Amino acid sequence: MPLIVIDDSGYDVRWLIAGPLPHRLTDEERVLIAAPAILASAADLETDGLWTIPVLGAQVWELRTGATGYVTRAEAEGARPRLQAMFDRLAG
C-alpha cells in the first residue's frame, strides 16, 4: 500500500508491505517495487503547476520483519530501463 508523506524538503512515497515475503527484499527488489510509485507521483505532483515541492524518493517498510529501506529519486530514474524490459517481457 503506497502512501505519500510530505515534509519541508519534499514528498516521500511510503510503501508498507504487510504480506509474507520469501526473504527480505534486496536493494534491487526494493528499487523495482518503489520506482513506479516514485516516478508516477513525480509525474502527477510536479507537472500540474500547483506543487513546487519535489518527490524525493520512497521509504519501503517490510512490516512482518521490521526491515526498512529507502529508494532515491535517482535510483528510480536509473531503474527505467529495467522496468521497461520487465514490462516488455510481461506484454510478450
Secondary structure topology:
Layout: E1 2-7, E2 10-17, H1 27-46, E3 55-62, E4 67-72, H2 73-78, H3 80-91
- By oligomeric state, this entry counts as single chain
The average pLDDT value, as a whole number, equals: 88
* Percentage of residues in helical conformation: 40-55%
Strand content: 25-35%
Task: Evaluate the radius of gyration.
Answer: 14 Å
Instruction: Give helix and strand order, one letter per element, not per position.
Output: EEHEEHH
- Overall tally of domains: 1
* Low-confidence region ranges: none
Profile the largest sheet. Answer: 4 strands, mixed
Distance between the termini: 27 Å
Q: What structural category do the secondary elements indicate?
A: alpha+beta
Overall body shape: globular
Strand order of the largest sheet: 1-2-3-4
- Per DSSP, the total helix count is 3
Question: What's the total number of strands?
Answer: 4
Explained architecture:
The protein has 92 residues and is α+β, with helices and mostly antiparallel strands. The protein has three helices and four strands, in the order E-E-H-E-E-H-H. It has a four-stranded mixed β-sheet. A hairpin with a 2-residue loop joins strand 1 (2-7) and strand 2 (10-17). It is globular, with a radius of gyration of 14 Å. The chain starts with a strand and ends with a helix.
Task: Tag the structure with descriptive keywords.
92 residues, alpha+beta, four-stranded mixed sheet, 4 strands, 30% strand
Describe the structure in brief.
The protein is α+β, with helices and mostly antiparallel strands and 92 residues long.
